[in-house]
Amino acid sequence: MTDVDVRSTTPATDAAGGPPARGIRSGGSARSSRRGGSLARRRLAAVGWGVLGVLLLVALWEGYKLVAPADGVLIGETRVLPRPTDLAMPHVWDMIGRLGEPVTRSPSAQALWLVILLAALTTLGIAAAGWLVGVVVGIGLALVMQRWRLAEWGLLPWIVLSQTVPLIAFAPIVKSWGSRVEIGSFEWQDWMSVALIASYLAFFPIAIGALKGLQSPDRIHEELMQTYAAGYWATLAKLRFPAAVPYLLPALRLGAANAVIGAVVAEVSTGLQGGIGRLLIQFAGQASGDPAKAWAPIFGAIVLGLVAAGSVALLGAILKNYRRTEEAA
Amino acid sequence: MSAHLTPRAETTLRIVAPLAVGAFVLGVWQFLVSVVGISDYLLPSPASILEEIVASWDSIVSATLITGTNALIGLVVGTLLGITLAALAARWRAVDQMSAPVIASLAVVPIVALAPVLNSMFGADSQFGRQAIAAIASFVPIFINTLRGFRQTTPVHRELMRAYAATPGQVLRTLTLPTARPFILTGIRIASSLAVISALVAEYFGGPRGGLGSLISTSAASSAYARAWAYVVASIALGLLFYLVTLGLERLVLRTRTIQPDRTTGTGTTSTSTRSTTSTTVSH
Amino acid sequence: ACSSGDSGSGGDATDDSALTPVKLQLQWLPQGQFAGYFAAVDQGFFEDEGLDVEIIPSGGDIVPQDALANGDVDYAIAWVPKVLGSIEQGANLTDIAQIFQRSGTLQVSWADSGIDSVADFEGKKIGSWGFGNEWEIFAAMAAEGLDASTVQIITQDFNMNAFLQGDIDAAQAMTYNEYAQLLETVNPDTGELYQPEDFNVISYEDTEGAMLQDAIWADTERLESDTEYADTTVKFLKAVIKGWAFAAANPQDAADITIAAGSGWGPSHELWMVNETNKLIWPSDKGIGVIDETAWDKTVAGALSAVNEAGDHLITEEPPASAWSNEYIEKALSELEGEDLDLTGADWSPIDVTLEEGGN
Amino acid sequence: MSAPENAAAPEPAPAAAAPATAVRVAGVNKVFETRGGLVHALEGIDLEIAAGEFVSLIGPSGCGKSTLMRLIADLDAPSAGTITVFGKTPTQARLDQEYGIAFQQAGLLPWRTVAANVALPLELHGVASAPRKAKVEELLDMVGLADFADRYPDQLSGGMQQRVAIARSLAEQPRLLLMDEPFGALDEMTREKMQSDLVRISAETGAAVVFVTHSIPEAVFLSDRVVVMSPRPGRIREIVPMRLGASNAATTDAAARAARTDGLREDRSFFEMVTAVREALHGAPVAAGARGVETR
Amino acid sequence: MSAPENAAAPEPAPAAAAPATAVRVAGVNKVFETRGGLVHALEGIDLEIAAGEFVSLIGPSGCGKSTLMRLIADLDAPSAGTITVFGKTPTQARLDQEYGIAFQQAGLLPWRTVAANVALPLELHGVASAPRKAKVEELLDMVGLADFADRYPDQLSGGMQQRVAIARSLAEQPRLLLMDEPFGALDEMTREKMQSDLVRISAETGAAVVFVTHSIPEAVFLSDRVVVMSPRPGRIREIVPMRLGASNAATTDAAARAARTDGLREDRSFFEMVTAVREALHGAPVAAGARGVETR
Ligand SMILES: Nc1ncnc2c1ncn2[C@@H]1O[C@H](COP(=O)(O)OP(=O)(O)OP(=O)(O)O)[C@@H](O)[C@H]1O
Ligand SMILES: Nc1ncnc2c1ncn2[C@@H]1O[C@H](COP(=O)(O)OP(=O)(O)OP(=O)(O)O)[C@@H](O)[C@H]1O
Ligand SMILES: Cc1ncc(C[n+]2csc(CCO)c2C)c(N)n1
Ligand SMILES: [Mg+2]
Ligand SMILES: [Mg+2]
C-alpha cells in the first residue's frame, strides 16, 4: 500500500468528478489553525493510521474466528456472517506463512510468494499494454466527442452502455478473432487478447475523464484563445490538454486499476498461462485441501492493482504544475 | 465553432444521434452476418438473437429477476454501508485513514478473485455470496463519492451552523446530508450498473443456478450462442434499467437546487459535476 | 497444415520449419487428465511424425469445440455430449478418437446422507459445474423419471468446499480430480485426511446417464476436402496413442512431464490423476481411441433425454453420421501394429497412489 | 461612548461590562499558526460597542477585520485578551443566540426555499411551526421579499439573496448583528439600495451592528463609529465617530439612525466624514482643498 | 467626436470608416434565443470610437454591455447591423490581432508562470523566443510585476493577477483594448491604484479602449466619453463626454489622458461629471445642490 490517502489512491471512482473544487480562500477555516504539523509528519500519521486499520481488520478476522458459531451467523435461512472454519476463513498467519512455503511438494517448486510475484509481473505487463491501448482509444474518443457535439451525443450513451456488457461473455470471441489476425510477420498472441479485454475496461474512465477535462476550460479561456485567433490544434495544445490534466490523472489511475482487473478476468476466462488470473483458478481448485494457498493470488491481485494505480499517481507528481487549481488536500 | 442550435433541435438531436449510431451498428452487424456471410456460429445475427429472446422469454424474465434481485439487494446494502462508513470517515479523520487501505484494496480487487472465497464463507447454496459481491462492488464508489460530498459543505455554511449553535445531529440533517446528496446519488448511479454486472459475473463462480450469468455460461458452453446473446442482451437491459432509474432519481433530486456558482464574484462553489455522465469502475 | 515437403521454399530451412504445425485445444488447464498429449510432446512422438504440436490450455470460458469450429486450432479435446450440442448448433465436427472409454464422473455424498443412487437426488441440492458438464446428471435423472426441477442445481466452483461445508448434498466430482481433492482434505473431526469410507460415491458409468467424455475432435469439412489434414490426423493420432501408451507404462514420468508442462498440482495429486485417467482409457478392447458404437448410442440417447432446469434441451435430434468416425484412429492403430506397444491395455494395471494433504 | 478612542491608549477595562455594552473586546491578540510560520492577525485590540450602536470596521485587506468579527462570534478563539458579548463569554452568547450573522456570500442553502432559509435558525431552535411562519412572513416583508417566499435562491439576484441572508440573521431578533462585507459582492446600484435598507432595518430592530466593509462611503453612511484598522499585525489605528443625520449628541441610538436617508449621501458633513476616514486610513491627510470624496 | 452623441438620433453612417476610427457600430441588434424565449440584448446600437479614444460603457446589470463588447471582439455575431474595427470586419480584426482583451476575471492559465501567461499570445503567433522574452520583460516592467515573472497565478493577489492579464492584453501592442469590468473583482483600494495604472498605460500605448464598468467614478476618471446604456432591450441612452484633465478640446488623445492623475479625483469638474453620468443613468436629475458624488 504505497499511499494510504483514499483521495489519492482510490480512484475517485467517479472519474468525471474530476478535480476537486477550486482552492477558494474563504473565511479562515479553509486553513486550519490547530493542525500545524509538518507535511511529513502528517503523511507518517496517515500511514500509521492505515497500518492500524489493516491490523484492526486482522484482529477482527481472528477475533471473529474465535467467537463465531461454527456455522456462522444466520438470520432465518440467510447466513449474514461467514462461517469461521479454517476452510472458509484461514488464519491470517496461515495465509502469510503459506506464502513462504513452496507451491507444491514437487522438488522443482518455487516459493509461493515468488510464484505470485512472477505472475503479478506478467499480468502487470499485459495490463500495462491494455492500459496504453485504453489511453489511446479513450483520449481519441474524447477528442472526437469534444470536437463535435453530435459525436458526443451519438457516442456517449453507447460508451456508458458498453460497460454494462458482461465482459466475460466476450472473452472467447476476442480470443478467437484475435487468433485469426496475422499481418505480415506480426502474429496475434493470446496475451494480446487479454490486453485487449483489459483495454475495454480501461478506456472507459479515460474517455469520460478526458472528455470532461477537454471540456473543462473556462469559457473565458476558450474565448481568450479565440481572440488570439488560435486554431483547434493550438487551443488543444495550449489550453485543453493542460486544463485536462487534473481530470485525466484520476481517470488514468482508474483506468490502470480497471486494466488490471480486466487482465485478471481475461486470464481467468481464457486460461492464459503465466499470470495472476491463471493462479487464481488453479489455486482456487486446490482450496479444499490447502485453503490458505487460495488467498495468495488474491493478495497478489490487490497489490498489483495498487501498484498500477500508484504508478499513475507518480505521473501526477511530475505534472504537479498542471494541478495547481486542485485543492491541496 | 459548432453552429448554434435551437434548444428544441438540440433535444431532438440528443435523442436521435445515439439511436442512429445504434441502428447503424446493428445494421452493419446484420449485414456482416447475413450478407457478407461472417459465420453465424460465434456471432449470431441480431435477428437470430431477437428470435431467441422471443423463444426463451420466460426463462429470460425469471433469470433477470433472480440476478436483478441480487443486484438490488447488493446495491441497497452497499449504499447503506457506503454512506454510513463515509459519514464516520468524514467525522473522524482516523476512521478515514484507517479505512483507506481497505477501501483502496476493494477498489482494485477483481470480483473473479473474491467470488469463490465469498461462496466458501457464506455458502454456495444461497444467493448471499452474489449479493455480497454486488454490495462490495457498489460500496466503493458510493463511499468515495459520499465522502467527497460530505466534505463539500462550504465554510460559510459550516460557520452559520456554528453560529446557530446547531447540534451535530442538526448539522448532519440540515447541512451535511443535503449538501452531499447529489454526490451520494452520483455514487449510487455509478454503483448501479456495477452491482448488476458484479452479481452476474459472480454467478460464474458457484452458487444456485438460474440467474443470467449461469445461463449465459451454460448456453455458451453448449455453443447456443444466439441464446447466450439473448441473455447478454437481457443483462445489458438490466444494467441499463438500473442506470436509468438511478439517473432519474439523481435528476429528480437535483431539480431541487444545489449550490450554484456565484455569478457576481465567480467564486461560488458549484456543487457537483453530476449533470454529465460519469464513469464507472467495472470489475468482473 | 502445410505438407512436410515444401521445407525449402521459405529459405529458413531449419528442422523446425519442416514440421507441420498443429494446434491442440485442451478443455482445461494443463493437468494429468491430458498427460498423454504432454508425454507425446515431451518424448518427441509428434516430432517423429513430422508434427510441431502446440498444446493450448483453456480457461473458464473457452469452449474447445468452438475454437476448433472457428478454425483457431486443428484438434480439440472435449466431452462428447457438449460437442453434440455444438454440432446441433451448426458446428461441423467429427470425433476421431474416443480416448476415454468410460465416464469418470461421480456424484459424491456423505456416507450418512442416505444418497446412494440417482433416485435419491429428489429434493436435494445437487452440485454441478455447469459449463455443459451437467448433462450426465440430467440424463441419469431422466432415466429415473426425475426432471431437473425436482432437484436444486447448485453451481460448484473450482473446489469441493461447498460440499465439505454442507451447502450441497451431492457434489459432482471427477474420479481423477475432485474426488482426490476430498481425500486430500483434513477431516476436522479426526485431524486426519478424509477416507473413502466417509463418502457415498455414485459413478455415472453405472447409470443410464453415462456419457462419453474426452474425445479428440477434428474439423469434418477439412477431413473430407483436405487430404493433407487427413494425413496429419493419422500422424497426430499415432503420436497421441504413443503418448498415452507411455503414460500407461510410466505414470510417474507422465506426471512429472505434466507438471513440467505447467500443471499446478503437486506430485501426488498429479500421479493420482494420471493413474485415474489411465483407468478411463485402459483397457480398450478394440484399441485405444476406437469409438464403441453402443457407448456412442447410449451417449446420444442420454443427450436426447436430458433437459436442464431452464427447460433447454441439449439436442433435439440425432447427430449426423459425420459426428464420429473410426477411420483415422483405426488407420493409426494399424500403422502402429508392428511396434512394441500395448494398444489395448491388455497388460496394463493401475498403480496405488497415496494422496497427500492439500494436493500439493 | 461615541468619543473617539485610540487603540494605542485604551481606557482601563471595567471589571464587568454594563448590560448597555453589546461587545467588549479587551487586549485581544490573535496569532495563527500556518505552514509559513506565525501570522499575527490581531494585536492589542480594545473596543467597546454599545447596545444599539452601529460600528463599522474598515481597513486594508488582511488587517484582521474578519478575524475580529469571528472572535466576537465565537467562530474562533483569541490567543490572548478577553471578549464579552452582553456580559457573557462569546461561547455563551453564541449558545444563547445573542447575535445574528451575515457574510459576504449570502450563504443560503440552495435546496431550501427563501422562506425555509429564513426559517432555518427558528427551526433549529425549536420554534413551533405557526409562530415560525408568522415570523418568516414578517421578516420577508421587512426585506421586501414577501412575493419570493417560495422561490429557490438560484432564482434570485445577488442583491435579493443578500436580503434573504439579512432577514435570516434577524430571525431571532438578536441584540447584535455581525456582518462581514455583506454587500461586497453586489453591484454599485444594488449596493446603495441595500445600504438604505439596512439603515432602516437596523433602526427598526434597534440591534447593535458590527459591520465589516472596504468602502469608506458605505461605512460613513451606515455607522455611528468607524473603526479604522492597520495591517500586520492588525491594530486599531483610529476610531472615527460619525456625526451624521439628526443627532449630533453623544447618544448614538437607533432613532438617530432612522433619520439617515439617501439625501444624506449628498450632505456636506458626509463628505467631511468620508475625508476623515480616508485620512485615518491612509495614515495622513490626503490633500488640502474641497475634498471628502472617496472615489473608491 | 467627443461631442455628445445621442443614440436616438445617430449620425448617418459613413460608407467606410476612416482609419482614425477604431470601432464603428452601426444599427446593431442582438437577439438571443433561449429556452425561455427570445432575449433582446441590444437594439439599435450606433457608436463610433476614435483611434486612441477611451470610451466606457456603463449601465445596469443585463443592459448588454458585455454583449456589445463581445460583438466588437467577434466572440459573437450581431443579429442585425454592422460593426467594423479599424475598417475591417470584426473577424478579420480578430485574425489580425487588432485588439487585446481583458475580462473581469483575470483568466490566467493556472499552470503557466506569470511570464508564460504574458507570453501566451506571442507564443501562439510564432514570435521567436528572444524577442518574446524581451517583450514579456518590458510588459511586466510596465505593470510593475517584473519580480514576479516566475510565480504562478495562485501565488498572486487578485490585483496582481489582473495586472498580469492587462500586460497580456497589451502583448501585441494592439490599437484597441477591450476590457469587461477588469477591476470588478478587486477591493476598493487596489482598484483605485489599478485605475491610475491603466490611465498611465493607455497613455503610453496610445490604444483606443472600450471599458465596461459599473462604477461611475471609475468611468469618469478613465474615459474620454461615457456611454450610458439602458436595459431590456439594451439601448444607448446617452453618451456623456468627459472634460477632464489637461485638455478640454475636441481631440481626445492619449496625451490628454496622460495628464490625468490621482489629484483629479478631487477636482471640482470630476464631481460634476460624476453627477452628469449619474443623472443620465437614473434618467433624471437626482437632486439639486452641491452634489456630484457617487457614493456607490
Ligand atoms: N485560519 C487562518 N489561518 C491562518 N491565517 C489566517 C487565518 N485566518 C486569517 N488568517 C490571516 O490573518 C490575517 C487577517 O485575516 P482576515 O481575514 O481577518 O483579514 P480581513 O481584514 O478580513 O481581510 P479582507 O479584507 O481581505 O477580508 C491575514 O493575514 C490572514 O491571512
Ligand atoms: N449567450 C447568451 N444567451 C442568452 N442570453 C444572453 C446571452 N448572453 C447574454 N444574454 C442576455 O443578454 C442580456 C445582456 O447581457 P450582458 O451580459 O451583455 O449584460 P451586461 O450589461 O454585461 O450585464 P452585467 O453588468 O451583469 O455584466 C442579458 O439579459 C443576458 O441574460
Ligand atoms: C469455470 C469452470 N469451472 C469448472 C469447470 C470444470 N471442468 C472443466 S474440465 C473439468 C474436468 C476436470 O477437472 C472440469 C471439472 C469448468 N469447465 N469451468
Ligand atoms: Mg475579511
Ligand atoms: Mg457583463
Report on this model:
- The complex is a heteropentamer, with 1 copy of chain A (329 residues), 1 copy of chain B (284 residues), 1 copy of chain C (360 residues) and 2 copies of chain D (296 residues).
- With 329 residues, chain A is mainly alpha-helical.
- Chain A folds into 2 domains: 44 residues; 232 residues, MetI-like fold (Orthogonal Bundle), CATH 1.10.3720.
- Chain A is built from 11 helices and 4 strands.
- In chain A, strand 1 and strand 2 form a beta hairpin.
- In chain A, helix 4 runs antiparallel to helix 5, helix 7 runs antiparallel to helix 9 and helix 9 packs antiparallel against helix 11.
- The N terminus of chain A is likely disordered.
- Helices cover 35% and strands 14% of the residues of chain C.
- Chain C is built from 14 helices and 10 strands.
- Chain C has a 5-stranded mixed beta sheet with strand order 2-1-3-10-4.
- The N terminus of chain C is likely disordered.
- By secondary structure, chain D is of the alpha/beta class.
- In chain D, strand 8 and strand 9 form a beta hairpin.
- In chain D, helix 3 crosses helix 4, helix 3 runs parallel beside helix 5 and helix 7 packs across helix 9.
- At the A-B interface, helix 1, helix 2, strand 2, helix 5 and helix 6 of A face helix 1, helix 4, helix 5, helix 6 and helix 7 of B.
- Strand 1 of chain B pairs antiparallel with strand 7 of chain C, so a sheet runs across the interface.
- The complex binds adenosine-5'-triphosphate (ATP) (2 copies), ligand VIB and magnesium ion (MG) (2 copies).
- One magnesium ion binds next to helix 1 of chain D.
- The site of one magnesium ion has 3 residues of chain D, from helix 1.
- Chain A: Its main location: membrane.
Properties at a glance:
heteropentamer, A: 329 residues, mainly alpha, 11 helices, 64% helix, D: alpha/beta, Rossmann fold, three-stranded antiparallel beta sheet, binds adenosine-5'-triphosphate, binds magnesium ion, cell membrane (chain A)
**In what range is the share of β-strand residues of chain B?**
under 5%
Average pLDDT rating of chain B: 83
Spans of chain B of at least 5 consecutive residues whose pLDDT stays below 50 are 258-284
Proportion of residues in β-strands of chain D: 15-25%
Write the element-wise H/E pattern of chain D from the N-terminal end onward. Answer: EEEHEHEHHHEHEHEEHH
What is the top-level CATH class of the domain at 21-98 and 174-295 in chain D? Alpha Beta
- The sequence of SSEs of chain B as H and E is HHHHHHHHEHH
> How many strands, which pairing sense, and closed or not: the largest β-sheet of chain B?
none
Number of helices of chain B: 10
Mean pLDDT of chain D: 80
Radius of gyration computed on alpha carbons of chain B = 23 Å
Secondary-structure-derived class of chain D? alpha/beta
User: Given the structure, what is the number of helices of chain D?
Assistant: 9
Major sheet strand order of chain D: 5-6-7-3-8-9
Terminal residue distance of chain B: 41 Å
Region (Disordered) (chain A): 1-35
Biased composition (Low complexity) (chain A): 9-35
Keywords (chain A): Cell membrane, Membrane, Transmembrane, Transmembrane helix, Transport
Pfam families (chain A): BPD_transp_1
